[in-house]
Design goal:
two-stranded antiparallel sheet, binds 2-acetamido-2-deoxy-beta-D-glucopyranose, 7 strands, 455 residues, three-stranded antiparallel beta sheet
Length: 455
């Protein structure tokens, strides 16, 4: 069986100069509506005690939640992304409506309400997401002690949920303490452990991240690269008790957002460790995601959900997967020698996923940027805007500019990222290290892969 991804790679290798269809970015990525809507939301509350998570289904009005909800970090982190854009797109700041706003101050103000969560055990396991704006703050102000404290507190809170018998951090608390449930989403938590280890020199945090990732690769990821949402372990014996779903269509199905978290999470593990075992897991998860996309490129909420009635999309899964593919492409480039073919393929595919799902979900009249998110279909929460869908929409655009692939007016430069010149293995998509020497050939090859993908 030759997968679509493999066929695209073969094409890339065989016919890099073939006449190509145009691959293009959706202009919405850099629309002034992005800054305008996000600013309007930021200005609704001055001292936020509640955070936007998802919208209603009809008018796209944000619904607000208390700070210790797992999604609270995404809106402040989006404000930091817009600050990042003022630097990346310095010449287009007015055109994008980014001028006249202190995005850093807004990000700081909006993350302040999260602070009690740092030491609030009620917050549970999703501290990686909550830590995003504080990690962003440290990129700007590495000496900021309250941001350092926030990151370290979140990391230690997560480390406190590690069970050596299981080898993972616990997700949900359950009435039976020997019932130890781990969700694929928690691959996204591991970043805060690396950031804190970097700040403190505490290697235990890295050991915990590594162990969690290793067990997730073995027990959540199936041989074909698809994934279970939840694995239940016995906290005493460490054995796997069951595998099931919480938010997916069936216990043995592949929930698309979980699959997307996995692509990103394992690519991120590779970035931090340079262990190619993680790169391979991310590749396998990416291949499953790409090969199971329908012809219209619209990401369904679950890859195994029935086609009738029509499966609601999940635009957030699309945006997360695209960001994971961009990170995976950087992983391919950091190999020695750089895997240009693999890198180009993942950037191409990311652009295509962004294009197809933006075409579906962009909603000028809504408060959110995108519609067509599925928060939790088993709980009948679909067809909404979602704060993390919007966050990754904004971050994808920034990352593509950062890598030199896109310009700030929404066109492709015709070049693809090439390997950073030094210490490539520790580079991240938010570092400006990449320069572009991909040239015309790579541009043609990229479009060629795009042609093949939707077959
Ligand atoms: C942003 O720049 C444009 C063009 O220079 C200007 O018309 C607009 O008033 C500025 N907006 C703010 C909020 O400063
Ligand atoms: C330090 O970071 C915190 C948390 O992100 C923020 O609230 C505060 O404004 C920052 N302080 C300074 C001096 O930048
Ligand atoms: C390192 O982190 C672990 C997990 O949070 C903690 O138990 C340990 O005390 C820390 N070590 C030091 C030296 O702070
Ligand atoms: C875990 O194993 C212990 C010891 O065998 C047993 O008492 C407990 O019921 C098990 N828990 C689960 C959730 O399987
Ligand atoms: C570790 O700290 C250095 C120096 O502040 C920084 O450049 C690097 O990005 C950090 N890495 C992580 C994983 O936080
Ligand atoms: C890489 O990770 C795999 C498991 O994911 C582990 O078995 C192997 O020992 C690791 N390799 C190195 C060099 O750490
Ligand atoms: C998953 O399996 C459990 C236990 O058999 C069952 O109660 C549940 O309904 C199943 N979930 C789905 C979505 O089929
Ligand atoms: C899930 O299990 C059902 C019932 O056993 C089976 O019909 C279906 O093919 C399975 N789906 C996957 C994706 O394995
Ligand atoms: C999906 O995106 C690709 C690349 O932008 C485009 O060529 C294709 O027409 C899109 N498919 C649909 C059904 O919109
Ligand atoms: C996208 O959302 C619109 C309503 O906002 C809905 O009519 C349409 O069916 C949705 N499409 C998918 C594929 O979910
Ligand atoms: C390059 O990346 C592709 C896609 O991940 C992979 O199939 C291929 O084996 C990689 N090549 C090398 C030399 O690592
Ligand atoms: C979407 O959610 C609605 C309720 O809001 C539910 O009735 C419907 O079954 C869901 N759609 C699908 C196809 O699962």
């Amino acid at each position: 069986m030759v997968s679509k991804a493999l066929k695209s790679l073969v094409l890339l290798l065989a016919a890099p100069c073939a006449l190509a269809a145009d691959l293009s970015l959706p202009v919405e990525l850099f629309s002034p509506l992005v800054a305008q809507k996000i600013l309007a939301t930021a200005n609704t509350v001055q001292n936020p005690t509640k955070y936007p998570q998802y919208t209603d289904r009809v008018q796209g009005v944000w619904q607000y939640f208390v700070p210790d909800t797992w999604t609270s970090g995404f809106f402040p982190a989006t404000l930091y992304e817009l600050n990042r854009r003022t630097t990346l797109c310095a010449a287009d700041v007015s055109a994008q409506g980014l001028n006249g706003t202190d995005w850093v101050l807004l990000g700081q103000t909006w993350s302040a309400g999260e602070v009690p969560s740092e030491t609030n055990t009620g917050v549970g396991h999703d501290v990686g997401f909550l830590s995003f704006p504080f990690v962003d703050e440290l990129q700007l102000h590495p000496e900021n002690q309250s941001a350092i404290t926030a990151v370290n507190d979140f990391a230690n809170h997560l480390a406190g949920r590690f069970d050596p018998a299981v080898g993972c951090t616990r997700s949900w608390d359950t009435p039976d303490p020997t019932d130890f449930e781990v969700i694929i989403d928690n691959m996204m938590n591991l970043e805060v452990l690396f950031v804190s280890a970097n700040l403190t020199g505490n290697h235990t945090l890295i050991d915990i991240a590594t162990s969690h990732a290793d067990h997730t690769a073995i027990n959540h990821v199936r041989p074909d690269g698809s994934s279970f949402h939840v694995v239940e372990y016995n906290a005493t014996t460490g054995v796997v008790v069951s595998k099931f779903t919480a938010q997916g269509y069936a216990n043995n199905s592949t929930w698309s957002r979980g699959q997307a978290w996995g692509i990103y999470g394992f690519a991120n593990m590779f970035k931090h460790t340079q262990n190619t075992s993680y790169l391979e897991t991310s590749r396998r998860m990416a291949a499953y995601f790409i090969n199971n996309l329908p012809d219209d490129g619209v990401v369904p909420w679950d890859f195994n959900a029935p086609l009738v009635p029509p499966r609601p999309a999940d635009s957030s899964a699309a945006m997360i997967a695209a960001n994971g593919l961009i990170l995976l492409s950087q992983g391919e480039l950091s190999l020695s020698p750089p895997n240009k073919t693999g890198s180009d393929f993942y950037v191409d595919t990311a652009i295509q996923i962004i294009a197809n799902n933006t075409a579906l979900a962009w909603r000028p009249s809504w408060q959110s940027l995108l519609a067509n998110g599925t928060v939790n279909n088993p709980e009948a929460n679909n067809l909404t805007g979602i704060v993390y869908g919007d966050y990754y929409f904004v971050k994808n655009a920034n990352d593509l500019v950062d890598l030199g692939v896109a310009t700030c007016n929404g066109s492709l430069t015709g070049t693809l990222p090439s390997a950073p010149s030094s210490t490539s293995s520790t580079s991240s998509v938010s570092s400006p290290a990449a320069t572009n020497t991909g040239g015309v050939q790579a541009g043609a090859a990229r479009a060629d892969a795009a042609l093949d993908m939707t077959r």
